[in-house]
Design brief:
CATH architecture: Alpha-Beta Complex
Shape: globular
Radius of gyration: 18 Å
Helix content: 25-40%
Number of strands: 9
Strand order of the largest sheet: 3-6-5-7
Distance between the termini: 18 Å
Strand content: 15-25%
CATH superfamily: Spore Coat Polysaccharide Biosynthesis Protein SpsA, Chain A
CATH class: Alpha Beta
Largest sheet: 4 strands, mixed
Structural class: alpha/beta
Number of helices: 8
CATH topology: Spore Coat Polysaccharide Biosynthesis Protein SpsA, Chain A
Number of domains: 1
């Protein structure tokens, strides 16, 4: 899913190339977008369905747009869908993401020491579902908008709690979806002389927070007093 100007078409094109290298058999890559310009012809570009929201001043739809993947009829698409954020880097085989048992699978969100209580929330950078099977997620969001915005900090928090209550939430095996921020950057002070490493067994590396793949390549963090060396392995993995 691509909207706005933060990510250019090269992110979609590289994502297609990575999927093709790491997934056996045939597949269709669909990009829900407001601008298909520059996206390679192998990718099917379709409009992002409208959320149909009445937002209050200061409220933005932002990543809530991801919930439109749960439309009862998403442009007539059928079958099993694996959602991938544009800024992930694929480094291992993807076949298991389609065969892993579970009704709905998502990353078990990375632990934060300042959050207390059961760690239910998933990270929606990578999730798998049957198209049309969870239309109640989007229907509830639309009909209880202010309640959802009041009780949930983002779309993945709402999605995880909603499906957890239904007993449908499951997580990818530990280590499949590594966090660049938490799993790749060496601990201080070794981050000043050691390069970020790709964790053993990782299949997808998630870039969240202040580092995206181009930043990792350049050895750049977008926060003061934080340092990384260039992650040279990203250049080999993140290419068209």
């Amino acid at each position: 899913m691509k909207w706005g100007t933060k990510y250019g078409p090269e992110y979609v094109n590289r994502l297609y190339a990575m999927v093709r290298r790491h997934l056996s058999g045939d597949f269709s890559l669909v990009c829900l977008t407001d601008d298909p310009a520059g996206i390679r012809g192998e990718v099917q570009c379709l409009p992002i369905p409208p959320l149909n929201l009445q937002l209050q001043p200061g409220q933005r739809d932002g990543a809530w747009k991801k919930l439109t993947t749960f439309e009862a009829d998403l442009h007539g698409l059928t079958g099993t869908a694996l959602f991938l954020d544009l800024d992930v880097v694929i480094v291992g085989a993807l076949d298991g993401f389609f065969t892993q048992p579970g009704d709905f699978l998502i990353i078990h969100d990375y632990p934060r020491f300042w959050r207390f209580g059961p760690r239910i929330v998933g990270n929606s950078s990578v999730y798998r579902f049957t198209l049309g099977a969870h239309a109640d997620v989007l229907a509830y969001f639309r009909s209880h908008l202010q309640e959802v915005l009041r009780n949930h900090r983002n779309e993945q928090h709402f999605l995880s709690h909603f499906l957890h209550r239904q007993g449908k939430l499951a997580y990818w095996p530990q280590g499949w979806c590594a966090s660049f921020k938490y799993d790749c950057i060496p601990a201080w002070p070794t981050n000043y002389w050691r390069e970020p490493l790709m964790p053993e067994g990782a299949r997808i590396v998630i870039f969240h927070g202040e580092v995206n793949p181009p930043d990792a390549l350049a050895g750049q963090r977008n926060k003061r007093l934080r340092h990384i060396r260039p992650a040279r392995w990203v250049a080999e993995a993140w290419k068209g």
